[in-house]
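User: I'm putting together a teaching handout on how multi-component assemblies are represented. Below are the sequence lines for each component of a complex, exactly as they appear in our records. Could you produce the 3D structure of the whole assembly as C-alpha cells, so the students can see both representations side by side? Please keep the chain order the same as the input.
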Amino acid sequence: MSGHTTNLRLKLPLICVFLQLLTILLFAVFVCYDNQTNAKLWHEELKLHNKSHLDNEFYLRYPSFQDVHTMIFVGFGFLMTFLKRYSFSSVAFNFLIAAFAIQWSILTQGFFHSFHHGKIYIGIESMINADFCTGAILISFGAVLGKTSPIQLLLMTWLEVILFAVNEHILLDILGAKDAGGSMTIHTFGAYFGLMMSRVLYRPHLDKSKEREGSTYHSDLFAMIGTIFLWLFWPSFNSAIAAHGDDQQRTVMNTYFSLAASTLATFATSALVNAGGKMDMVHIQNAALAGGVVVGTSGEMMLTPFGAMIAGVLAGFVSTLGFKFLTPILASKLKIQDTCGVHNLHGMPGILGALLGVLVAALATHDTYGEGMTDVFPLVADGRRTAAYQSVCQLIGLCVTLGIAVIGGSLVGFILKMTCLGSPPDTQCFEDQIYWEV
Amino acid sequence: MSGHTTNLRLKLPLICVFLQLLTILLFAVFVCYDNQTNAKLWHEELKLHNKSHLDNEFYLRYPSFQDVHTMIFVGFGFLMTFLKRYSFSSVAFNFLIAAFAIQWSILTQGFFHSFHHGKIYIGIESMINADFCTGAILISFGAVLGKTSPIQLLLMTWLEVILFAVNEHILLDILGAKDAGGSMTIHTFGAYFGLMMSRVLYRPHLDKSKEREGSTYHSDLFAMIGTIFLWLFWPSFNSAIAAHGDDQQRTVMNTYFSLAASTLATFATSALVNAGGKMDMVHIQNAALAGGVVVGTSGEMMLTPFGAMIAGVLAGFVSTLGFKFLTPILASKLKIQDTCGVHNLHGMPGILGALLGVLVAALATHDTYGEGMTDVFPLVADGRRTAAYQSVCQLIGLCVTLGIAVIGGSLVGFILKMTCLGSPPDTQCFEDQIYWEV
Amino acid sequence: MSGHTTNLRLKLPLICVFLQLLTILLFAVFVCYDNQTNAKLWHEELKLHNKSHLDNEFYLRYPSFQDVHTMIFVGFGFLMTFLKRYSFSSVAFNFLIAAFAIQWSILTQGFFHSFHHGKIYIGIESMINADFCTGAILISFGAVLGKTSPIQLLLMTWLEVILFAVNEHILLDILGAKDAGGSMTIHTFGAYFGLMMSRVLYRPHLDKSKEREGSTYHSDLFAMIGTIFLWLFWPSFNSAIAAHGDDQQRTVMNTYFSLAASTLATFATSALVNAGGKMDMVHIQNAALAGGVVVGTSGEMMLTPFGAMIAGVLAGFVSTLGFKFLTPILASKLKIQDTCGVHNLHGMPGILGALLGVLVAALATHDTYGEGMTDVFPLVADGRRTAAYQSVCQLIGLCVTLGIAVIGGSLVGFILKMTCLGSPPDTQCFEDQIYWEV
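Assistant: Of course. Below is the structure of the complete assembly, with chains in the same order as your input.
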C-alpha cells in the first residue's frame, strides 16, 4: 500500500454527493408514505375500519424506535470513543455512515419487504428496521476502526447494506427463521463481515501506531456513556419489532434479566483473569453488553426469566475471556486485527444467541404458548411445520448468515484495498489529525 | 462599559427570588390543572364521555415531551460546552434560564392560548409548548454565550418569553399559519432576536478574550453529546404537537430523512471548504442539525421523503458555508459576534424552512390530503381559504417573526447594556472563573 | 483496620457467582411471567375479556420505565463521577450493584407483593419497582462512595434490598401510606441507611486521601451528565407507578414545576453563601434535584402547580444550605463522612417530602378529588378512614422508615467492617488504581 493520501477535499464530497443524490433519486421514484403515514390513506382507514388514532402503529412503536435510535447514534458512537486520539473520528464517522445507512437500507429492505405495485411503502417499522441494519454496519465498523478512511467506510456501508438485506430476506422470508433482536441478522452478520474485512485489510506494520491504540482516563469515561446507553435500551432493541402485547413485554423482560446477569459475570471474570485481581474497563464497556446479544433470537420466546439469566452469565463469561485471550490470538495467528473486539461482543455471543434460538424453538409446545404461538412461531401455529423443523430452520439461518458475512466481508475488503480511497498509512492509524482540524 | 463587577452575591439571589416569587404568585392566582390532569374533572370525563384512560393525552404525548425535554436540557446544554473554559457556565446557565423559561412561558402562552373564565388550564401540551418557547430562548443565548452574566440572561429570558408568546399568537391564532416544529416561531425568532442583542452588545475589544474562544479535544466531545441528542430527538420535536395519527408519524419520518441528508451534506461541505481537505468539528456539531430546522414548518405536510431529503441537503450545505464564510463577516462588517453561530444553524435554515412551508402549503390539494386536510390546513379544509392564501399567510408569518425578533432583540439588548448587571469585562469573556468556584 | 488487601482476584468472582447463582436458583423455583407477559395467558385474556393489545400494561408503563432505568444507570452512575480519580469506580460499581439489585429486588418485592400459590408473577411494574429499590441502594452507595470495595457494596446491596422490601411492605401494604415517588421508601430510607453505614465505618484518618476527594474540570462535567438526566426524567420517576390517567399526568406536572423552582432556588442560594458571590458546581449538580425528591410523596396528590413550586424552592434552599454548612459538621461532630452529600439531596428533602405528604393528605376532600379519590386515597374513598387518619398513617410511615433505615444501616455497617472484604486503606480512598487497570 503505497501512495497514501488522506486529503479528502474532493473525494469525500464526491462520494457523499453521489450516494445522497442516488438515494434521493431512488426515493423519488420508489418510496411512498404507507397507509398510516399518508394523510389521505390514514383518514380513509379511520373511516372505513372504524379505527382510532391510537391504532396508528406510531403509538405502539415510536418509544421503542427512539431507544433504538439512541443506541445507534449515542451508544455505538460513544462506545468507540475509547481511543485516546481517535474520538472525533469514532463518533463522527459513526454519525456519517449511520446517517447514510438508514436512508439506503430503507430502499434495500423496502425492495424485499414492502414492494407493491412498483412502490415501497414506508412507516415507523421501516425506520426501526433501517436502524437495525445500521447496527450491523456499525459492528463491522468496529472491527476496522482507526484503520479506514470515511470514503472506505461509506463504500463499505453502501455494499454491506445490500448484503444485509439479502441475508435478512433469506432468513426471515424464505427460511421462516425468527430473529426479532438480530442475534443472527445483525450481530453475527455484522461481526463476521467486519472481521473478514479486517483480515483482508491486514496491516502487518500496525504496531507503528501502537502508542495511539489505547485509551486515556477520560476517553474511557466517554466510552462508558456509549456502554450504558446501549445496555439501558437493549430491551427496546430486542422488542422493537416483536409482535404486540405479551411478545414485546416478554422480550423486554428477558433482555433485562440477561443483561443484568451478564454484567455480574463480566465483573467476576474480569477480576479473575487479571493477575493483580484488578478489573479492566474494556471488559466492562463491552462484555457486559453480551447479555443483550445472546437473547436477540430467543428473547421473544418463552425463555423464562431464569433461562435468560443463564444465557446472560454465559455470554458475559465467554465475551470477557475472548477479550483477554482470543483477541491477541486473532491478531497474531489469524491476522485479524479487531480494534473494538467485535468478535467478543457480537461474534461469539451472536452465535451463542442463534444456538439458543435453535434450542428454545425446539422446545416450543402448544401447551406453553397457547394462542400466542401464532405470534412467535406462525408456521408452527398453523401446522405448516413442527417445532423441531423450525429449530432446524433456525440453524440453517445461522449457517447462511455466516456464509454470506464471510464471503461478503472478504469481497468488500478487497474492494476497499484500492489505494485511492484515502486510508491512513500504518504510522497514522488511530489518529484524528489526518482527517480533522484538531 | 466601565465598572464591571461580576460578583453576583446579592444580585443573582435577588433576581432569582423576584422572578420565582412573581411566578408562584401568578400561578397561585391563575393556573389550574386542566380536565385531563385534575382528579375530579378527568374522572367525570371518563364517566360522561365513556372514555378510557388511554384517551388521556398523557399516553399520546408524554414520550414526545420527554424527548423534547432532553433536547432542551441535554441537547442545548452540552452543545454549548465546546468552549474550553466556559463549559460550566454553558451547561449551568442553560439549566438556569431553561428552568425559569419553562415556568414563565406556561403563563405567557397560557394567557394567549388557554385562558378561560379567568384561569389558565394546563396539561401535557402546555409543558411541550413551554419547552418549545425555551428552545427559542436558548438559541438567543447561543448568540451571546460567554459575554453575558446570568443576571442579564434571566432578564433576557423574562422579556423574550413574552415577545415569543406575542409572536406565536399572531402567527398561529391570527394569521392561521402552520408551524408545528417552529421553523419560524422558534428558530427564526430565537436566532434573529439573539443576533440583534449581540449587535447592540457589540464588544470591539473582544479579541482580548480570543485565546479562550476555542475548544479543547474533550470539550468538543462533550459538545457532541449535545449534538447527537439534538439530532436523535428532533423528529420528536417537530412532531410533538402535530395532530394525532398520520400527522405525527409523517412529521417524524420527514424530519428523520431531512436530518440524515443534511448530515451527509455537512460532511461533504466541511471537507470541501478546508484547504487541507480536513473536516471541522464545529460544522459537524452544528450544521448536521440544520436538517431538523429546515422541516420545522413543512414536516407535518405531505412533503414526501425525497422532498425532505432535498431540504436537508440544502440546509446542511448552506449552514456549513455560513460557519466558514459568513460568521467572520458578520463579526467584522456587521458587528454581530455570534458565539455559537446561531445564524448558521437556526437563522438561515429557519428562513429556508419558513419558505419551504410557503411552497408546500401552496401545493396542497384535496386530492393529496383527503380528509387529512382538516388536521394540516383546517382553514383550507373547511373552505375558509385557498391553499394559495394559506401560503401567503405563511409568508406574512415569516415577515412578522423577523420584525418582532429584530425589534425585540434590539430593545432587550439596550436594556441589557445597563452596567449593573454583572457582565464580564472584555478581558474575561468565555471564562468560568468569574462566576464559578473552579 | 489492619491488613487491607484490595486484591479482588478470588473474592469478587466468588461473591458475584454466589449471588448470581442464588438468584438464578430462586428465579427458577419461584418466578413466572405474569398474565400480560406470558404468551398463553395474555392471549386467553385477549379472548375472554375482549381486550386489545393496547390494554397491555406495556404500552402504558414502558416509556416511564425506560426513563427510570436511565436515571438509575446514567443518572446515578455519572452523577458520582465527579471525583477526580474515582470516576471508573463510580460509574462501574454503580453499574455492578444496580445490575444485581434489580434482580434481587424482583425476588424480595415479589415475595411481599405478588406471591400467589407459591409463585411470583412478574411484569413491567415489577421491573419499575425493582429499579426504584435500586435507587435506594445507590443513594446509600453515595454516602460511602470511595471508601468501600465492590465486595462490601454487593453485600450491602444483598441485605439492604431485603430491608427495603420489608419497609416498603409495612408502609404501603400495612399502613396504607401513599408514596408513589418514594420520598420515604426510597430517598429517606436510602439516605439514612447509607449515613448510618458511613457512621459505623467512620475513618478518622480519611484526610490522608484528602487530595483525591475533589473534582477536576472535566470530572465535574461528566457529573453534570448524571445531574441533567436525573432532573429530566424525575417526572417519569415520580409518576411511573402512579394510577393511570390524571394521576400520572398530574404527578409529572407537579414534579416538573417543583424541579424548575428548586433549580432557581439552588442557583440563588449557591451565590448567596459564597463570599465571592461565585457559584459552586456541587450545589448545581445536587441541590437542583431536591425538587424531585420533595414531591415524591405528594406529587400524585392535588398539590397544585404553585404548591409544587413552593415545595421545590424550599427543597433547593435547604439542600444547598446543607451542602455548605451541614456536611462539614456531620463529618467533624457526628463522624458521618457523606461523600456525595446524600443527606442534603435525599435525606432532608426526603423528610420534607414525607411531611408535605402528611399535610396534603390531611387537606384531601371529596370536593377536590371527586371520583379520582379512589386512585389517590383508596381507603379514604371507600370510607374506611378519614383524610386526617390517612395523614397520621403517612407520618407513622416516615417514622417507621427512619427507624428501619437507622437500625438496618448500623447493622449492615458492622457487617461491612469485616477486614476480609477488600476495603481500601485510609491512604487509598477515592482511588481507582487499587481496583482498576488504569
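A couple of points students might notice: The first helix of chain B runs from residue 11 to 30. Chain B is about 70% helix and 0% strand.
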